[in-house]
Amino acid sequence: ILSVIPALIYADVTGREPRRTGAPGDGLCTECHGPTANQGGGRVQVAFPGELTYTAGATQRLTVTVTDSAAKAFGFQLTARLKSNLQNGQGGSFSPTDGNTQVLCEDGSLKSGRACPASTPVEFIEHTQQGTGKNTFTVDWTAPAAGAGDVVFYIAGNAANGNGRADNGDNIYTNSYTLTPASSQPKAAIS
Question: Fewer CB atoms near the end CB (10 Å): N or C, the chain?
């Protein structure tokens, strides 16, 4: 049994455990990486090309960056929730842009096709084993349909020491962002 435990711990570097973003109803990666979130000298950020607005049904390419000068490996998990249902309201959908990310469904399965099963609709985009050597990731997010309201993004980033073990040498950082629907009203012009 003791010989299998290190392999199980190392096997989790690819993620595959949903609800580790710090969102309502979610835990954090601190269960295996580091004792407390936001205690190291780094941070996790998401860059939104439309700033903090979205157009219903449109796709945006987001950039996730995890920074920590002491880290040798990086990871993240990101989710988007409807503000009207922060625990279970899926806000749009995610797609990987390369082999450095993957989308998990709430039940822990990899997303296949266009959506997660109706019984487990919440999506989580995260790093893959291939992506852990990078601290910057790109992901595509397609906004929900018109009338969905505000969407809140929750992210947890892992800046790890790279030893492949769950220990206090890893730092977890969290952040959240609220995107509002872009106004369909024409902007006022001063003449």
Answer: C
Q: Answer for the pair 154, 133: CB distance below 8 angstroms, yes or no.
A: no
- Integer Cα distance of 164 and 24 in angstroms: 28
- For the record, the structure tokens of 158 come out as 């892992």
Q: What is the pLDDT of residues 156-178, one digit of tens each?
A: 999 999 887 777 889 999 999 99
β-partners of residue 43 are: 67
So what's the pLDDT on residue 32?
73
- Reading the block at residue 101, the tokens are 């990310």
User: What is the rounded CA–CA span in Å between residue 72 and residue 170?
Assistant: 10
Closest alpha carbon to 143 in 25, 60, 61, 70: 60
The pTM assigned to this predicted structure is: 0.87
3-state secondary structure of 178: strand
Structure tokens that stand for 124 in this block: 């989580």
pLDDT tens per residue, range 92-105: 999 999 999 999 99
Are 122 and 84 in contact by the 8 Å Cβ rule? The answer is no
DSSP H stretches of helix in 42-99: none
C-alpha closest to that of 56 among 77, 82, 78: 82
What is the DSSP pairing of strand 151-160 with strand 171-181? antiparallel
What spatial distance separates the first Cα and last Cα of the chain, rounded to whole Å? Answer: 77
Q: Judge whether 61 and 139 are in contact, CB under 8 Å.
A: yes
